[in-house]
Amino acid sequence: MGVTLPMLAKLKQRVRALKAEVVALVLAARYPRTPWYAKVFLIAIVAYAMSPIDLIPDFIPVLGLLDDIILLPLGIALAVKLTPRHLWQARLAEAETGADQLPRLLWGAAIVLLIWLAVVTLLAWWLVSLFVAGLNV
């Protein structure tokens, strides 16, 4: 069963809408009247969405695509819920005119790399503590 033209058109439309939503997230994060708690979450979602590095690498079967298919849309939905409705609608209208302007954020990649570094460091610390505990027995 192949991909039909209506399916492809619907997918392209959804990708355009997703780009507009990410740009609107950036605009909402920069907007002075956005609540601080929403700004923090908006910045985190934008950093993750625009980072060239995924939290769960794509080469891991099934799980690698889960973040792109489930986590990112859920994060965007939660960010929209945290943003006041009138503010979100205004930023989305602004974003729809410039949705093709999505730069890659190096600081987003840096955040993801720091998370991975922290996980690897904690894992190494745990393994070393197990090894040292085994020597003391």
Provide a brief overview of the structure.
The chain has 137 residues and is mainly α. Helices cover 76% and strands 0% of the residues.
The H-and-E topology, N to C, reads as HHHHH
* Radius of gyration computed on alpha carbons: 19 Å
Number of domains: 1
Q: Please tally the β strands and state the result.
A: 0
Report the major sheet: none
Helical amount:
over 70%
Report the structural category.
mainly alpha
Which regions have little confidence, pLDDT < 50, spanning 5+ residues? none
Structural commentary:
There is one protein chain. The protein has 137 residues and is mainly alpha-helical. The chain has one domain. Helices cover 76% and strands 0% of the residues. Helix 1 crosses helix 2, helix 2 packs antiparallel against helix 3 and helix 2 packs across helix 5. The longest helix has 30 residues. The chain is flat and about 65 Å long. It starts with a helix and ends with a helix. 17% of the residues are buried.
Keywords:
137 residues; mainly alpha; 76% helix
Secondary structure topology:
Layout: H1 5-30, H2 36-50, H3 63-82, H4 85-97, H5 106-135
